[in-house]
């Protein structure tokens, strides 16, 4: 496909972004950038320090000093905070919920954007999130937007809760995701939307393999 460009994958919670992005990065030999991990890292570290980030002055001071070690390869996105690898711990339900709230804050979004752009400065990356193709990498060579029915996305998220205690009911999870969708779509800073030039894929009835194949065909490597 020529030069090593940037590929973005956006979409709502449970659409399959993370899995598809990792597999696509592996297939292309690109770096995988997980924007959600950076939002979770902010939430995780603030919780560890017992900080209340409601005030912009506190949040700004915290972000100015927060510099986790970031590394990426085709198989994962790794964060080290205070010498400890925390990537797995960032997937806890608590970190996910708090990161969703913090993601509405402009200061946090700009902090994440700057770090993603630094990591993607030389191209050869697959970046996934909710504003990668619209805000972070608007000039990406290839943009994808994944969607799926609400019930399907909720059931996928319930499966992710396995090992984290009792999973919420499907109805409760649907309500939680619907609320997350509303926050993402109505926030002032970088709301969730379909990039104008994106390839839109409904993953409701598709296997991960089928979605990956469609992405590779769109990029032109199949």
Question: Could you give a quick summary of the protein structure above?
Answer:
The chain has 222 residues and is an alpha/beta fold.
Structural write-up:
The chain has 222 residues and is α/β, with parallel strands linked by helices. It has a single domain, classed as Rossmann fold (3-Layer(aba) Sandwich), CATH 3.40.50. The chain has helices at 17-28, 35-49, 56-65, 93-102, 106-119, 132-136, 150-160, 170-186, 208-219; strands at residues 6-10, 31-34, 69-72, 77-81, 84-85, 125-129, 142-147, 199-202. The strands form 2 sheets. The chain has a 5-stranded parallel β-sheet. A hairpin with a 2-residue loop joins β4 and β5. The longest helix has 17 residues, at 170-186. The protein is globular, with a radius of gyration of 17 Å.
Task: Give the topology, please.
Layout: E1 6-10, H1 17-28, E2 31-34, H2 35-49, H3 56-65, E3 69-72, E4 77-81, E5 84-85, H4 93-102, H5 106-119, E6 125-129, H6 132-136, E7 142-147, H7 150-160, H8 170-186, E8 199-202, H9 208-219
Parallel strand pairs: 1-6, 1-7, 2-6, 7-8
Antiparallel strand pairs: 3-4, 4-5
Helix pairs in contact: 1-9, 2-4, 2-5, 7-8
CATH class: Alpha Beta
What are the low-pLDDT stretches, counting only 5+ consecutive residues below 50? none
Q: How many E strands?
A: 8
How are the strands of the largest sheet arranged? 2-6-1-7-8
**Total helical segments:** 9
Mean pLDDT: 91
Summarize the main sheet. 5 strands, parallel
Order of helices and strands: EHEHHEEEHHEHEHHEH
CATH topology: Rossmann fold
């Amino acid at each position: 496909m020529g030069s090593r460009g940037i590929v973005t994958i956006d979409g709502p919670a449970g659409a399959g972004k993370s899995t598809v992005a990792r597999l696509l990065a592996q297939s292309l030999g690109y770096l995988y950038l997980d924007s959600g991990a950076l939002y979770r890292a902010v939430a995780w570290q603030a919780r560890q320090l017992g900080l209340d980030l409601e005030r912009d002055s506190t949040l700004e001071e915290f972000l100015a000093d927060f510099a986790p070690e970031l590394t990426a390869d085709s198989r994962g996105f790794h964060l080290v905070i205070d010498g400890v690898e925390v990537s797995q711990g960032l997937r806890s339900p608590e970190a996910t919920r708090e990161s969703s709230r913090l993601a509405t804050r402009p200061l946090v979004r700009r902090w994440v954007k700057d770090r993603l752009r630094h990591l993607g400065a030389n191209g050869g990356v697959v970046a996934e999130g909710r504003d990668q193709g619209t805000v972070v990498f608007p000039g990406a060579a290839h943009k994808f937007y994944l969607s799926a029915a609400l019930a399907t996305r909720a059931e996928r998220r319930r499966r992710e809760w396995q090992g984290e205690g009792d999973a919420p009911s499907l109805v409760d999870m649907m309500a939680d995701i619907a609320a997350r969708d509303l926050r993402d779509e109505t926030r002032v800073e970088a709301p969730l939307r379909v990039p104008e030039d994106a390839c839109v894929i409904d993953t409701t009835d598709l296997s991960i393999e089928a979605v990956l194949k469609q992405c590779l065909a769109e990029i032109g490597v199949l």
